[in-house]
Amino acid sequence: MKPAVMMKWMILRANLVIILIVLLAGVFLWVALSSKKKSDYTPIVKKWYKARSIYAVLLVVLMLVVSIYTLRELPFNKPSYVLGDEVIPVQVEAYQFGFDIDQTEFSVGDTVEFNVTTRDVTHGFGVYDPDMNLVGQTQAMPEYTNTFYLTFDKPGTYQVLCLEYCGLAHHLMMAEIVVK
Ligand code: CUA
Q: Of ligand 1's atoms, which has the minimum distance to the CA of residue 122?
């Protein structure tokens, strides 16, 4: 390209940029000015803003009532034994892929305090009754002990299963608790 042609081309480009900037500024100005104009819909819009406010207040009141009603039993992990009852403390350590439980035989009516932690990654500690209903569970967390209470009211073999995907053999993480 000859220097003269290049110069013309550059000037043309600069002009184009200026024209675009002016156009864009025009659009902004138009939007800014027209936003102040009152349209025919103003009364309707105002009416619905009011309706929306009432709806919001009703919703907040409703959610508060529902929250208070459903959460009044917190904490859900309240010990289910009567104060003064004997509680058997049991240490549980989960690992890839099993559970170390320092006592696995109990009598019907025993209340057990499970103190659950893990040696490696996060696991779940779920206790299933002989009918395979989940009767208690907590998370096994590294460097932390979660405690939950369980009263064994049915005799039989209870299953302990991991409830947190923790690796290839997660599904093999099982233990048994026998209640006589
Ligand atoms: Cu441990 Cu899944």
A: 1
- Closest residue (by CA) to atom 1 of ligand 1? 123
39-73: pLDDT as tens digits: 778 888 888 999 999 999 999 999 999 999 888 87
Cβ of 166 closer than 6 Å to ligand 1, yes or no, is yes
* Structure-block tokens of residue 7: 């110069």
Q: Report the alpha-carbon distance of residue 142 to residue 180 in Å, rounded.
A: 32
Buried b (16+ CB within 10 A) or exposed e, 116-133: bbbeeeebbbbbbbeeee
147, 115 Cβ separation under 8 angstroms:
yes
* Buried b or exposed e, range 53-79, using 16+ CB within 10 angstroms: eeeeeeeeeeeeeeeeeeeeeeeeeeb
Looking at the whole model, is its pTM more than 0.90?
no
